[in-house]
Protein: Sugar ABC transporter permease
Organism: Dendronalium phyllosphericum CENA369
Amino acid sequence: MFERIGRRSNRNWNITENIAGYLFMIPTILVVGTFVVLPILYAVFLSLQKVKLLGGIEYKFVGFRNFRQLVEDERVWIALKNTAEYVAIVVPTQTVLALILAVTLNAGIRGKNWWRILYFLPTVTSSAVLTLIFMWIYNTDGLLNDFLAFVGLPTYNWLGDPAVALKGIMLMNIWSTAPFYMVIYLAALQDIPQKLYEAAELDGANEWQKFIYITIPILKPVTFFVVAIGVIGTFQLFDQSYIFSGGTGGPNNATLTVVLLIYQAVFRNLQMGYAAAIAFLLAAIIITITLIQQRFFGGERT
């Protein structure tokens, strides 16, 4: 009898505990549902519609016509090419630069706290402000061309030449984003047990060997995080391209990116459904690349 009462009491307690757990989850479920799940579902709905915005919102089901238009739209392929080139150059460069800066600051140089602040300043500066400053630097008679001419190198029309316009944005973003990833690497470096390096020294390892065989393998999960965040951020390039080109993606579509193309589809061409289809294409690319990165970088844990 007492055993039955005990089982019933435990069962009632478990039910009460489960109810309390679900009640605590309600705020999170509401936030995620409102700001994540519902927008995704609405975007799926939009991607299958032709939306009329002027004179009242009207929806017309067109099936996968918006996605077929992606394949036929030359500007989509140009935007993908520009974005892929941007990602392929910026992500590896900023990752390597961040690691070099972190290792340098972790080596115990004099005034390293001031160097950290100095390196990190571009990260906390407004992206729009940085872009305007670099546009002034990139001017045909700006500081960069003056410097190139002074050292005897050729000068460029950084804002008007399609061959170098996107590279100007790359240089700016590598300089401004590498310090953010430097801080992540620096925190990870300071968490590596010093006894590993001491043991390696006893075995006769030099600094380069310790870096290759101890630091790099231990930082592999951190590198996966840095690269994944870098890929997601670079694929979403918008504001610098918009400001550089005045929203056109010029010169000659040289700075046209996928997100800028989505902006143009919505706010210039009023093609909500088509913009949603482009957004899903971008999301699919980012997810695929992130999964591939996880396959090569994310399998190990420290």
